[in-house]
């Protein structure tokens, strides 16, 4: 069943991406890599690759930093730890669609947080901003950090940081107290204890968090679709949204299949080496 409904459909998608089926009427004639060449010369797809790269880097970095800091905080045996733990974990119970709608309201330029910022002379455009930070021309697009994508990163980090907190907290609780006491007896400060001993011991967890978050960010669709859509000048567009609109609204099935295969390969670049190393480590 897995071979048929997973690998079989992956093979079918790859076959369609090499065809000329770009209308409601199937056309199975061989097109070679024409659809892929079209994509990589397409302004929208180039913008999608830029947005995905920026989103992935900012998202993973923020999740790791916040996850470590909050896990270390919870590991201090604070009063009300269970309350804080539930607060940090709660967003994970929501779907990305719910998160997207909520943060769309919060970052609405006419309402939301701007109601508190306007008296201070601040008026953010958030996900409607079309500016590119540190931009330079690359191909057909301006490569840099789209300001609008930062609002999406905030929403994604809010939802997924709880996962990193759970991972790091489990790792911290697994480190024997003797390790900490030995470091303190050797004169290590608390900063040196965490920087040189605790965090290196948590490196396998960090690798797992990076792989899982990269898997989520590279195929992100529902959060973007619910919160911003492609955005003006495609500043918040991602391959998942482009694939959906190309395939199911434009009926360009071969082009949509090509986008799906590029997404699959980008995820495989992260997942396959991790699975191979885990398999070798387990044996």
From TrEMBL:
Positions of the ABC transmembrane type-1 domain: 49-276
One of its Pfam families is: BPD_transp_1
Which coarse location class applies to the principal site listed for this UniProt protein? membrane
Keywords annotated in UniProt: Cell membrane, Membrane, Transmembrane, Transmembrane helix, Transport
Q: Where are the transmembrane segments?
A: 53-74, 86-106, 143-172, 193-218, 252-276
Q: Tell me the PROSITE patterns matching this sequence.
A: ABC_TM1
Look up keyword Transmembrane helix and say if it applies.
yes
Q: Where in the cell is it found?
A: Cell membrane
- Topology term for the membrane: Multi-pass membrane protein
List the Gene3D superfamilies: MetI-like
User: Would the keyword Transport turn up in this protein's UniProt record?
Assistant: yes
Q: Which family does it belong to?
A: Belongs to the binding-protein-dependent transport system permease family.
This protein is called Melibiose/raffinose/stachyose import permease protein MelD
């Amino acid at each position: 069943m897995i071979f048929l409904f997973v690998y079989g459909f992956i093979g079918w998608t790859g076959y369609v991406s090499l065809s000329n089926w770009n209308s409601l009427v199937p056309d199975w004639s061989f097109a070679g890599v024409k659809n892929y060449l079209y994509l990589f010369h397409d302004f929208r797809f180039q913008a999608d690759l830029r947005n995905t790269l920026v989103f992935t880097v900012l998202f993973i970095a923020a999740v790791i930093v916040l996850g470590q800091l909050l896990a270390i905080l919870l590991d201090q045996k604070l009063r009300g730890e269970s309350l804080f733990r539930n607060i940090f974990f709660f967003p994970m119970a929501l779907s990305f669609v719910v998160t997207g709608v909520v943060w769309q309201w919060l970052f609405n330029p006419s309402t939301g947080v701007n109601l508190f910022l306007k008296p201070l002379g601040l008026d953010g455009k958030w996900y409607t901003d079309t500016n590119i930070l540190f931009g330079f021309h690359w191909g057909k697009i301006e490569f840099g950090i789209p300001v609008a994508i930062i609002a999406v990163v905030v929403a994604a980090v809010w939802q997924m940081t709880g996962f990193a907190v759970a991972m790091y907290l489990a790792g911290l609780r697994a480190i024997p107290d003797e390790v900490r006491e030995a470091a303190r007896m050797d004169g290590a400060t608390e900063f040196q204890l965490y920087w040189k001993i605790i965090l290196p011991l948590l490196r396998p967890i960090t690798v797992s968090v990076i792989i899982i978050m990269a898997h989520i960010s590279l195929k992100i669709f529902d959060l973007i679709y619910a919160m911003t859509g492609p955005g003006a000048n495609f500043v918040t567009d991602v391959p998942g949204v482009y694939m959906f609109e190309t395939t199911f609204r434009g009926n360009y099935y071969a082009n949509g299949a090509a986008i799906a295969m590029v997404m699959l390969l980008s995820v495989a670049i992260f997942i396959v080496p991790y699975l191979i190393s885990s398999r070798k480590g387990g044996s």
